[in-house]
C-alpha cells in the first residue's frame, strides 16, 4: 500500500496526492468509514484494486478541526474585515481559542484596510494583537499582497473567518491560478454568502492552504476550562500561576489577573476569555 494525503473531498469522493506527486481519485472502504470518516488533510494508506483506488486506513492525526473538517494543520489564518462585516474582536478571539485548543497556531489576516480612516478604532485592535505576539497581516485593494512566501512554505494552512470578509477574494489575489469562486456581500444582510461548498487543499508558495466553508459554529461544548486556560497564547507568561489548576477567573493570587492589571496581558483577550468561560459554565449547568 502507498501513503498519500487527501487534498480534496467532495461527498464521498477523495482526491489523494501520492508520495510521488501523482493524484488519484479514491473511495473509502466501508471499514474505514465505520471507524472514522477520512477528512481533508488526512494521511491515508491507499491501494489500487482493479480499476479503482481505495483508502484502506487513516494514519494518526496530529490535530484536527471538526467544523470545517480538516486534519494535520500547522496554522489557522483567521480573517476579519474592517467593515461589512465590522471587525469583531470577540469573534476573532473565539476563533483563536478554538484553534489554539487544537494546537494550531493562529495568524490574523485583516482585510478591507482601504475602507477605513487613519483614526478608526480597528487600528488600536490590530496593535493590541501585535503587542500580544500575534502575527497580523493587513490587506486592502490599495496594498500589494507581498511577503507571504515564508508564511506558507512547508505548512498546511486553513483560512477561516466570518463569511463576507473576503477569504476567496484574497486567495485569488495571492495566486490567480487558484480561481476560487467568489460572491459579493449581501446588501440586505451585510454579510457574505458562503461560496465554498467543499474542503480542498491548494498548493501555495511551497505549502498547502485549505479553502473551506468556514466555521459554521463556534462550539465550546465539552471544552474543559482548565485546558482552555492553558492553551491561550496570551496566557503563556514568564511567571505563571502558582496553582496548576488555576483557570484565571476568581482565584486569589492569579498571575494572569495581575498581568492584565499591569498591561502585560491584553484586557480585551482576557474579557473575551471570561465570556467564553461563562458560556461553558452555562452549558454545564
Q: What would you say this structure looks like, in words?
A:
By secondary structure, the protein is α/β, with parallel strands linked by helices. The longest helix has 18 residues, at 267-284. A hairpin with a 4-residue loop joins strand 2 (13-18) and strand 3. It is built from eight helices and 13 strands. The chain folds into three domains: 2-58, OB fold (Dihydrolipoamide Acetyltransferase, E2P), CATH 2.40.50; 64-211, P-loop containing nucleotide triphosphate hydrolases (Rossmann fold); 225-284, Ribonucleotide Reductase Protein R1, domain 1, CATH 1.10.40. It has helices spanning 30-35, 89-101, 122-131, 149-152, 167-174, 225-231, 255-261, 267-284, and strands at 2-10, 13-18, 23-28, 43-49, 52-58, 64-66, 69-71, 75-81, 105-111, 136-138, 156-161, 199-204, 207-211. The strands form two sheets. Strands 1-2-3-5-4 form a five-stranded mixed β-barrel. The protein has a two-stranded antiparallel ribbon with strand order 6-7.
Quick synopsis:
This protein is an alpha/beta fold.
Question: What does the secondary structure layout of this molecule look like, with pairings?
Answer:
Layout: E1 2-10, E2 13-18, E3 23-28, H1 30-35, E4 43-49, E5 52-58, E6 64-66, E7 69-71, E8 75-81, H2 89-101, E9 105-111, H3 122-131, E10 136-138, H4 149-152, E11 156-161, H5 167-174, E12 199-204, E13 207-211, H6 225-231, H7 255-261, H8 267-284
Parallel strand pairs: 3-5, 8-9, 8-11, 9-10, 11-13
Antiparallel strand pairs: 1-2, 1-4, 1-12, 2-3, 4-5, 6-7, 12-13
